[in-house]
Every structure is written in C-alpha cells, then in structure tokens.
Amino acid sequence: MAPNPTSRSVVQGPCFFLSYAHIPGLDSTRGPDPNRWVARLFIDLSEIVLNETKLKAAQAGFMDRGIQSGDRWPEQLAGALATCRVFIPLYSPRYFDSQECGKEWTAFAQRLEATPDRGNRLTAIIPALWAPLQDPEHLPKCAQEIQFDHEMFGPRYRQEGFYGLMKSRSMRTHYETAIKALARRIIKVAEQDLVPPGEPVDYMSLTSAFHDAAGEPPAKSSSPRMRLTVVAPDLSRLPDGRLTESYGQTPQEWNPFPKPGEHRPLASYAMELALRHGYLLEVGSFDNHVEHLTGAGGPDAPSVLVVDPWAARHAETREVLRRVCGQDRRPQPIVPWNLQDEQTAAAESELRALLREVIPERPGLPVVSHISSLGAFQRGLPRIFTSAAKSYLKSAPNYSPRGVPGTRPRLTKTEDSDGK
C-alpha cells in the first residue's frame, strides 16, 4: 500500500514546489502585480491538495511569493527544495531563460541523483504549461528527459496553457478540469514517496540546469544579461571587532540593513528588481567574478559592484578593487551606508577615504552611487541597471567582419540609366 502523504517524517516539507519565471511589470511603481495569476494558480492547487489529503496548510505547496522581506531568502528556497515531494516547473517562453528557475531545477535534480533507484524518479518532476511554448523541440536536455503527456489535462489546456484558461471566462470549465487533474497527479506522485528529504544546498552557489555540458544555453535568451558582484566579507573574513549581524556564510548573504532576528540578502532584492525590469541577473562574489571584470578591455557584460564599505579594510580586496575600478571600462559601483550602525558611523571618515583611493571619481567613469537605506537601494537600482547597460554598450569593443576585405562599392550609371 502506498504511504499516506501525512505519514512521512516531520522533516518533510511541502507536497509540491511551484517553480515559475517572474514576469516583469510594465511599471514597477504602479499597476497590479503581473505575477498575481501564478499566485492564483498556486492557491487553487493548494486548496485541492488540502481538500483531498490530510496535509496541514503549510505542507500543501511552496512558491517564493510567500517569502517575506525579512526572511532568509536563500535558506527558505533551499529548505523547500530539499524537502518537497514533487517539483512543478511552470513552462513558459521565459521559463528556460530564468537563471533562478534553472537553479531551482538543479537543486531538485541533485536530490534525484542522490536517491537510490526507486522506480522512475523523474516522475517526481511534473511539468505544467503556463503558456504555449514557441519552440518546444528546443527544450534543454534536462527537460527533454521528462516524459509527460499534457493531453491528460484536457484538450484546450495544451493550446492555451493555464494562463490562457484562467483569463477567459468561457474556459472556466477547462481550467477546473486541468487544475484538478494536475492536483491529483501531484497527490498520486507524492504518495509514491519517490524522493526522500535531503540536506539543503547552498542555493546562491548553484548553477542553472538549463546550460548543457558545453556550457551554452540551449536557446538564445530574449532578456538582457546583467552581472551583479557583491564585494563584502563573509563571516570568516570580517575585520577585527566587526559585528556579525549583517553577514553570512558567503558574501552574497550580506545585508547592511538587517532587522532583528531576520535577514534577507541584499542580493535577493536585486534579483527581484532585475526580474521586474526584464534583466537576467547573475549574482556572485568578487572571487566568482574577478576574471570576468578584469579581462582584456574590462568587464565582459554590463556589471554592477555592490560594495560593503568595510570591505575596504581588507588589503587584498582594496588591491583588486583598485584594479577593477581603475579601468577605462569599469563596472557601475554602489556603496550602501547604514549610518544607523554605530560601528559604521564611527568609522565613516576612514572608510570613505579608503574607498576614494580604490574607486576614484573621474570624468568618463560611472559615478559611484552612495545609498543610505534599503528603500533607496530598491528605488535606485533599476536606474543603475540602465546606466550600467548604457555604459557597457557605449564602450564595448567593435569587431570587424572576418574575411578578406572586398572592394569598396561605387555608384555608377547603368546601361538603362544611359537610355541604351
């Protein structure tokens, strides 16, 4: 007899994990949330799962919309991905362009690889169509391995996807048929107990599953690329006496504006804003990105540096910063200052002097943006992304076409123009 979905150990997390590509808003300051339809789908799925099982509300499903601004964002995602029973990738034209969706797939796939043979483990990945795919034959290898018949959710579902069914009142019956079929499929797979819980991974260090072995994306991304480099110490490299509350196990976990008992990395706010404005954001530490930032001619993509003032206390970091920011084509620097932090306020003059030394202000270079609050960071980052993109395109190297130069064309009269 298959185990009941409530019979598993208490370490088990949500029944399903909904992985979806965030939809950028037309205007970040006005208008409804463009992701509200995905949230509606999640709620409807969760309600059916709860009504047809004995699960508690918190065990039904997980989507990142429920992560509050103060939560430890990477840990929440990693925990859900390490304990969910079923992974639901919500296919759409932008899904396989999303680095975050690719990381979520990687985290769940690592659990599958570590699981002893328990039948077809790939059954624990149940793809769903949010919108019809333009080139379904060009899916990345990891998605091609999933054998799934979308016809089981109804004839109109494959044509419209969940979004199309939800938006049309005339298709309400088709939507209800599809959502019930998906929920019952989730429950059936969850009861098979295919993938036991695993240890949470370091989410920030994951790479996207949507890059094949050759290291290239399976299809050209339609969204502009942007790199964000966090220049901050981790807990093992803090300056002497520096308080730990703003820091984590990696530089990417740094947040200079922490709340008591809560911590969401500044990088996660950046990723959220990048998604809203249509950028594919690659986040990493100085160690991760230094080769990309200091190659011949400067950065190889539009780049933003988010610099902790306390990083300037580290001699090796100062030297690399001086090299990166002294280039004619340097990244766009941002320096967040939390002067409510007594240590930072007391050391402000010293830290500003060190930063001026390694991040010089010169005509023609991107201006250093000094910000004093999380709100200022959220308001200013979209503008900074735009500035970084323009600066990169303005100074990017031009490459002449390969081959032997031909003769220069000339305008000459033709026989017809001579009247012959």
Automatic annotation (TrEMBL):
Annotated region (Disordered), positions in chain:
239-258, 395-420
Q: Where is the TIR domain?
A: 55-149
Q: What does the entry give for GO biological process?
A: signal transduction
Cited Gene3D superfamilies:
Toll/interleukin-1 receptor homology (TIR) domain
Q: Which NCBIfam families match?
A: FxsC_Cterm, FxsC_Nterm
Official protein name in the record: TIR domain-containing protein
What is the native source organism of this protein? Acrocarpospora phusangensis
Taxonomic classification, please?
Bacteria, Bacillati, Actinomycetota, Actinomycetes, Streptosporangiales
